[in-house]
Amino acid sequence: MKQVEMASPDKGLDGLKVNDVAPPPEPAAGEIMVNVKATSLNFHDYGVASGVMAPDAGRILMSDGAGVVSAVGEGVTEFAKGDHVVSLFFPDWQSGPPRLSDFSRTPGDGIDGYAREYVTLPASWFTKAPQGWSHAQSATITTAGLTAWRALVVESQLKAGDKVLLLGTGGVSIYALQIAKAMGAQVAITSSSDEKLEKAKQLGADFTVNYKSDENWGETVESWSDGGVDHVVEVGGPATLSHSITACRVGGNIVLIGVLTGMGGEVPTALLMKKQIKLTGIIVGSHQHQQEFVRALETMQFEPVIDKSFKLEELAEAFRYEESGQHFGKIVAQY
């Protein structure tokens, strides 16, 4: 079978290597074998593949994996041969409050991931995929989809009529746009591209703002929302957080899920306190969260936005496309 490894971490994307290796063993008790059919690219995966996150030499890439169960080990009752399944970002976090603060047990980072055609792993590392979804669509759930779901539904307790601010048009933000609109919320979204903002409008965005041409976009969103939005899904970090606080209403919620503009910076603590905003940092979600999300997706009338698809052996090219920032929504690789 084919798999993509980080053969030379010091070479970045040039260090990715496609190898032909023996397939994994038949599943033992409690395990399943999955024929992986697709993965999707995330900013975290890019950090590993580019060498920024200093992966171990030989690490098999990719946190997201969707495919078909090809064999079932003794004692496994939740899956059967032929079931369509999706991997977990934190396979050890089954339920309850967060207990993880690093990626040491995240596939594609601390442990081997899904850039391979077959895996044999514990059944608890997967959930079923939504009925009727393609493998490429399902592969977008593990990281981007579940992060958006947890930010809006689990942490912010989104309800119909709420106003939401989303930053940018990457995988998490577009997923959040679709979830929010499916649940009856009003959505404002930012981008530096008017073309991407037009695409966001076609997906239901109620208000758009180009943060390049409007340096006071936080105030602009606050004005649109008549005193501030209820919820912000904050993917930028230090360069955008002050604007997000300005855009948020008194007593609102900001869920920090990304560090696209850096790992640290100044926070306007006085304004945060004055507006009594709840600021929560999250990383993806648990097995239980993903099960709940999949059930919800089967009732929502939308499909994830996939910008472009590559082959497994074109993974380095796919990351370079992600690096360019041209994409709107998700980038996938299909096997």
Task: Record keyword descriptors for this entry.
335 residues, Quinone Oxidoreductase, Chain A, domain 1, Rossmann fold, 2 domains, seven-stranded mixed sheet, six-stranded parallel sheet, 10 helices, 16 strands, Zinc_ADH-like, NAD(P)-bd_dom_sf, ADH-like_C, oxidoreductase activity
Give a written overview of the molecule.
Residues 12-333 form the Enoyl reductase (ER) domain. It comes from Salinimonas marina. Pfam families: ADH_N, ADH_zinc_N. With 335 residues, the protein is of the alpha/beta class. It folds into two domains: 2-140 and 304-334, Quinone Oxidoreductase, Chain A, domain 1 (Alpha-Beta Complex), CATH 3.90.180.10; 146-281, Rossmann fold. Helix content is 27%, strand content 26%. It has ten helices and 16 strands. The protein has helices at residues 43-49, 135-138, 141-155, 171-182, 194-202, 217-224, 241-247, 269-274, 287-297, 315-324, and strands at 2-6, 16-20, 31-40, 59-60, 66-72, 84-87, 118-122, 126-128, 163-167, 186-191, 207-210, 229-234, 248-256, 278-281, 306-311, 330-334. Strands 3, 5, 6, 7, 8, 15 and 16 form a seven-stranded mixed β-sheet that branches. The chain has a six-stranded parallel β-sheet with strand order 11-10-9-12-13-14, sandwiched between helices. It has a three-stranded antiparallel β-sheet with strand order 2-1-4, with no helix packed on it. Helix 3 crosses helix 4 (171-182) and helix 6 packs parallel to helix 7 (241-247). It is globular and about 60 Å long. It starts with a strand and ends with a strand. The mean pLDDT is 96.
